Amino acid sequence: MSSADRIRGSLYARILAFIAVVVCLGTAAVIAAAAHYARLAAGEAYDRLLVGGAVQVAENVFMQGGVLALDPPVAAFASLSAYDLVYYKVVDPRGVVVAGYPDLALDPATAQQARRGVVVEDGSFQGEAVRVAVLGRKMDESGGWATVVLAQTTRARDALARSLTRQAVLIVLAMGVLTMVAGAVAVRWALAPLIRIEKALAGRAPDDLKPLDVATPTEIRTLVSSINLFMGRLAGRIGLMQRFIADAAHQIRTPLAALDAQVELLGHENSAERREQQMERVRQRTAELGRLTNQLLNHAMVIHRGEIGALAPVDLVELARIVLAASVPLSFDRDVRIAFEAPDEPVVVEGDAVSLREALSNIIHNALVHGAETRLSVRVGGGTDGAWIEVNDDGPGIPEADRARALEPFHSGSGAGTGLGLAIAAEVMKAHRGRIDFRHDADGFSVLLRFEA
What we know:
alpha+beta; rod-shaped
């Protein structure tokens, strides 16, 4: 695994990498700012010395016998020369250099500006960078202006700027290292509750789905609550499947035992007439077992789709029409009138078409096989209070005392069914936030699938 993959796969590494990037960028910015301000600070300090020296030179310029003269300020030159090379010149009102270096350049515009105050600017002299201070002084006796030019090389101020920058860099790097160490410790400490959760989950037995009881900070409590909610749902689903498997095993065992007994009797039967009777019973047992197996598989499918089935708009009118048409052959062995009533416009609900089709198919099957004597009708409707599908027949119906139990798995009121039809329908309606109602009146017995608005 590459280092990039390790960083992407580790929350600790990702946070630390982010902190490192921020610290590095911040350090670079602070170092650049420190270098800039170090140059400014060094330049300002040396400029003050340079200006002070220029002022002292100007104060020592005087007129003697109509000629401009200079009494060099030794102390000022000594202070400036202690750090760098110093050059100067003094120009009288006629433009004649009376002292210093004649080749030290002086811009006339700068000389004019210097009469209003000291002008400090960069320059070059004898191949070296210099900092130049220019100051004009009005000579009262002649009425003209004398100009003082004082230049100093920049080696010392550059060295001071580098020294200040180096010290700032060392401080910033030390702070950056401390920040990284503190960040690593803080991130490790902040992630400690996640490690405790990991250990608590890793140390559990596969069947231990009790809620986590781990001390966590406020920010992680939502995660723990979500894990506990998921484990609660998983425990409920596992419990439901375990009960379903146990019930299914019990329900299948009985018809299998009966089928085995019928086959055993068939093997010892010599009479052709009785042998044919035994064969018919085997066929009936096989059909019952097939019906039970299909119902068990449908029940499992409904439970599964109730959790993960994606909801989509379903037209109840079209769905009921298709299911009723597929169920009509169940009435061919007797005279049962089939009716279908629905509005012209669609009645749409959000649901899982496969589960709803299975629920309605089971209710219609129950009505045709165990209820309807001469007629069966399917009605679809909807209103402000929701949509509904009603399956009505003229059979005896389900006694009111048994209706609650009729919705439980493997409870068959007729004794000939699997007891799963209404249970499947109840599971589907529960997943769709609806319900199953029963009604018995002069119009016959009705099973209603009601959907909330």
